[in-house]
Amino acid sequence: MRVVVLAAGKGIRMKSKLPKVLHPICGKAMLLWVLDVAKLMSERVCIVLGYSADTVREILPPEIEVRIQQEQLGTAHAVMSAKDFIDPDDDVLILYGDMPLIKVETLRKVANQHKEDENDVTIVSTVMENATGYGRIVRDLKGNFVRIVEEADATDEEKMIREVNTGIYIFKGKQLLSALPKVNCNNAKGEYYLTDVVGMMSKVGVHKSDDWGQFMGINDKVQLAFAQRKKRFEILERLMLQGVTIIDPETTYVDADVEIGCDTILYPMTLLLGKTKIGEDCVIGPMARLENCLIGNRVRVISSDCVGATIEDDVSVGPFARLREGTVLKSGVKIGNFVEVKNSKIGSRSKAQHLAYLGDATVGEDVNVGAGTITCNFDGKRKNPTFIDDGAFVGSNCCLIAPLKIGKGAFIAAGSVITEDVPEWSLAIARCRQVVKPGWVIRKKEET
Ligand code: UD1
Ligand code: CA
């Protein structure tokens, strides 16, 4: 079998600058969900593109073939654009780029029925509560298939029919190729209808599916949200069955490609996005957003925002920490409340527990960074590095003016503004000496 995916339409109802099929559903473009299923059905998959073809092409896996439909003159015309891809000796499955909920199990059933009944075409139909917008399946009194009528061409009586054409079909390649050139556009929309090809086949089968949800085409952002919700719960269910504990699926958002080890607990209001990978026995959330993070085992991340961070085993992050791109936390590190880390590597067991900023820093092992201490990494023009060697102790409220090196075991007194390198095992103190004037307050009062 070969698969042709139609995706040349513009998707006007999305009211978006982004081509419709590129809208993400749980972090993955709508179209890629369809192509995943298509690839399970066949090694030969071809997509018909038109509107914004170049933008869409950029995300396609290399094995997908592309044909261009310059003008969108109808579904039959779209298939015609891929006619050199269609093999007369092969079956052709027609899918749509905006039907991301379609399931491979369903398509396999259709393929089996198509083979067993030796149909020229097998249509997939389903019953919809509200059939508006769909082509209807017209049957005779005995219930045999008669034809498909498009809504625009349907009589009032036909519009009452709730069995609809999903638009998915399997054709015999040869029959499809010989019928396509005969399709005309003498209809209400003036389009070349693929449904007219069905009318030209002698042996038509209908596969009536009872799960209408998976045939929903995404036309607007309401339907996009519906699809997202469905996919989200599928992802969460898969993870739970793999041993991940999810306290509240209603408020947990996990993207399609995220991996999570067993016995990790996800607390409510947690978002795991992009290519995030989490090990076993971690506690994530409540209120954590992790995007493209690599996380080891037994890590805790509470009420924090982390993007592009690599976190090793037994690390604790938050509450209220922000980890930005290029953060590496080695095992046993503790990053506490109101600490921001950017493009910095923090060595094993080092701690910055409160109100600190570490940017462009390389911090050794067993370092203590006190409350309120910051790396002053930006001089207005350049980002400058800070090196803090193993075992150093940086007291509270220090400004470390980069570029700067603090040696092994050095001790930086609280409140210091450090502008010069500090050698190993030394004390650096850079603040005004305290002045005490005894009785000054009383004298001041007597004066006034
Ligand atoms: C089509 C079916 C209808 C079915 C419905 C299911 C026809 C004539 N009608 O109607 O019976 O109930 O789908 O959703 O086939 N496309 C192209 N090039 C074109 C036209 C369309 O690539 O020239 C693509 C669109 O991007 C879209 C899909 O084909 O993904 C369906 O096209 P659309 O115009 O929405 O067809 P419907 O009118 O919904
Ligand atoms: Ca449609």
Protein model, in words:
With 448 residues, the chain is an alpha/beta fold. The protein folds into two domains: 2-221, Spore Coat Polysaccharide Biosynthesis Protein SpsA, Chain A; 304-428, UDP N-Acetylglucosamine Acyltransferase, domain 1 (3 Solenoid). Helices cover 18% and strands 30% of the residues. The strands form seven sheets. An eleven-stranded parallel sheet has the order 12-15-18-21-24-27-30-33-36-39-41, with helices on one face. The longest helix is centred in the middle third of the chain and has 21 residues, at 221-241. The model has no long low-confidence stretch (mean pLDDT 97). Uridine-diphosphate-N-acetylglucosamine (UD1) binds at residues 6-9, 48, 69, 72-75, 77-78, 96-98, 134-135, 148, 150, 164-167, 193-195, 217. Residues 6-9, 48, 69, 72-75, 77-78, 96-98, 134-135, 148, 150, 164-167, 193-195, 217 line the site of uridine-diphosphate-N-acetylglucosamine.
Offer a quick outline of the entry.
The protein has 448 residues and is α/β, with parallel strands linked by helices. Helices cover 18% and strands 30% of the residues. Strands 12-15-18-21-24-27-30-33-36-39-41 form an 11-stranded parallel sheet, covered by helices on one side. It has a 9-stranded parallel sheet with strand order 14-17-20-23-26-29-32-35-38, with no helix packed on it.
